[in-house]
Amino acid sequence: MGCGQSAPKHGLLRFVLREGRLEADPDARLPGRGAYLHHDEACAREAVRRRGFERSLRTTVRLPDDLLESLS
After folding, report:
1. Per the count of CB atoms within 10 A, which of 4, 31, 46, 58 is most buried?
2. Is the pLDDT of residue 68 over 80?
């Protein structure tokens, strides 16, 4: 979604929408459509720049202010 590289799901961090807000789902147990991202700030920056979260989740996404800091 961000850098465009493939990886096994267990090596990626899953995100879901909860009440319209993007939330990390490290255990991959929350319901709903998930978007997967490398646990890397550069990959997250690219996902934000390319609107990858919105494309993957197929809706408008409010990104948390601390998204990039939480991945560094």
Report:
1. 46
2. no
